[in-house]
UniProtKB/TrEMBL annotation, chains A, B:
Keywords: Transferase. The lineage of its organism: Bacteria, Pseudomonadati, Acidobacteriota, Terriglobia, Terriglobales. It comes from Koribacter versatilis (strain Ellin345). It is an enzyme of class 2 (transferase). The keyword Transferase applies. Transmembrane segments: none annotated. It comes from the Bacteria. This is Glucokinase. Its EC number is 2.7.1.2. Belongs to the ROK (NagC/XylR) family. It holds the Pfam family ROK. InterPro entries: ATPase_NBD, ROK, ROK_cs. One of its GO terms (molecular function) is glucokinase activity.
Length: 347, 347
């Protein structure tokens, strides 16, 4: 059976997967990304690993192509990375063409959050819908919008920058220059920052101990304290939930999509932020209220706000999916069939 | 030449226009909507006026159909008004079928803000773009999203509820149950409310005089005081601008569309709120910053935030447009040609 290669190029790990067109994983390889050794080294790591996999599966079926998810803006016209803070030296470098010429196969570049949305749409939470918004809560907050079964790129390939949605106009300053971006309240980085603020304000001995003793004072540790009952840690995840809720409600009101998916590492703390998130969504979107699962009869069109299903593999599977859907044609049988959202100007 | 009838059914006026398919107005009729006399009376007014117009132009060309813009939610599946606070007695009434049977021609129902977006896309600010967001700042704040040349309805026909975008999480309470909706800061109603608050706080003698002496203490009067230099009135339009700016920035970040159009009565105060609006858009959207007209070379893809061009006629022309674009086919030559936004998941 034909298969594709997906690459998830992060600041920490470089992961490569061979995935059949029906979605079955053949093999997954994880390497540390040695970003500090320079771009040339990382591209070498990547092409070596891809060659290893393609050689191994050369008798398995046709290689459809390679999809690569990278953090940062992708210029869709030229296939270059426009700006990537976590991958210094990659700006304006034609990754896509360079790797195509090295490997002799079609290569498609995509923003990592868009790739994750593609993965969840293909094999995860969104597999039965054609219209979804996905939030990836990681080091930063990324987003991807899938409309009529395809990624919506916008005019410059920059659409889906949902981490910079203003949720609190006079809120915490963001690296983008704005105040109160979602990313400042719902990323792993924000969770740790809020925990350090709580420690500085003497709000929690448990958080203070953890911040001193844990080698890595991470959002995971803070989540563990929250579920163990630490009030300050719980308050942090309340803030995470309220912030996502405001952002999601605004998208529900604008797009009236059937599905909103929350993924990325922080989504593991789902039970700690789900209630405050849904409280905001309900309060701030009457569209949600009249279309909430509990408000409509079975079989009626519902608005679902849900957790991502693929965990850290969403971007990897999504990247592998990219070469399968070039020009909108799909070779997967199940996922792309339902189209319950009218696009026409009239009915 | 073929023509269509557009109907703009508001709480105050009922307007009917006959418009040729190239966009030329044949005739426009304005009647007071006698809502208090009941639905049957208003439908009678409407069908009488339409019959008068169609009889007059029966030798002019083929009647393509009738489009009706109404305030409130439209159930796209059944063609009924789902809820309309300004038109009591219209809920769940099959307007579309009733009028079709009375007049014997195709009738298409649409939310009034969507119809306005359609009008601006056809003949106004958005005529050279296929993707735009429109805000209608009137008694309330409505919105319409045009994507790939067509209205985006969402799964229940409720998309584009941009007046209920949260711009200030703990802000003024809204009729929808939320706090801090755009509508609470950028509608004509909100302008008057903020002016009354300023009067109550003793902030402006001029506003106090106007509120006592003018039969109608309207957003227009408050705008006049603002341009005459009244600080409190200016501050109100600063708030209008900051609020729209936050909302627009969020949409730019999500959709990366080329155009955002501000229409409705309050848009007449453009010079009083334009600067604070653009200040927010610039601050809160780096997508805007890198694609602003002043940031890109001539001919490059730009993000335009602009005023609507058709004034109060946007909804009327848009309604007439509806029957012309059923099933997405268009008979207009000029407007629907440019498609510079890639929709494909890959390039």
């Amino acid at each position: 059976m034909s298969y594709a290669i997906g690459v998830d190029l992060g600041g920490t790990n470089l992961r490569i997967a061979a995935v059949e067109e029906r979605g079955t994983l053949l093999e997954k390889v994880t390497l540390g990304t040695q970003v500090q050794r320079g771009r040339e080294y990382v591209v070498g790591q990547m092409t070596d690993a891809i060659r290893h996999v393609t050689t191994k599966y050369q008798d398995h079926g046709k290689l459809i192509g390679i999809g690569i998810g990278v953090p940062g803006f992708i210029d869709m016209d030229t296939g270059t990375v426009r700006e990537s803070p976590n991958l210094p030296g990659w700006s304006n470098y034609p990754v896509h063409k360079d790797i195509e010429s090295r490997l002799g196969t079609k290569v498609i570049l995509e923003n990592d959050a868009n790739a994750a949305a593609m993965g969840e749409k293909w094999l995860g939470a969104g597999r039965d819908t054609d219209d979804m918004v996905m939030y990836t809560l990681g080091t930063g907050v990324g987003g991807g919008i899938i409309m009529a079964g395809r990624l919506w790129h916008g005019m410059n390939g920059m659409a889906g920058e949902l981490g910079h949605h203003t949720v609190l106009p006079d809120g915490h300053i963001c690296g983008c220059g704005n105040h109160g971006c979602l990313e400042q309240y719902a990323s792993a980085t924000a969770v740790v920052r809020m925990a350090r603020e709580a420690v500085a304000n003497g709000l929690s001995d448990a958080l203070a101990n953890a911040s001193r003793n844990d080698v890595e004072f991470s959002s995971k540790v803070i989540y563990q304290l929250a579920i163990q009952g630490d009030k300050a840690a719980q308050e942090i995840f309340n803030t995470v939930g309220h912030s996502i809720g405001i952002a999601v409600a605004n998208m529900v009101n604008a797009l009236n999509f059937p599905m909103y998916v929350i993924g990325g590492g922080v989504a593991s703390a789902w039970d700690a932020f789900h209630n405050p998130m849904m409280e905001e969504v309900r309060k701030r979107s009457f569209i949600y209220r009249v279309t909430a699962p509990e408000a409509v009869a079975a079989g009626q069109k519902r608005t679902i706000v849900t957790r991502a299903l693929l965990g850290g593999d969403a971007g990897l599977f999504g990247a592998a999916r990219l070469p399968m859907v070039v020009n909108g044609e799909s070779s997967a049988p199940a996922a792309q069939s339902k189209a319950d959202t009218p696009v026409a100007g009239t009915r």
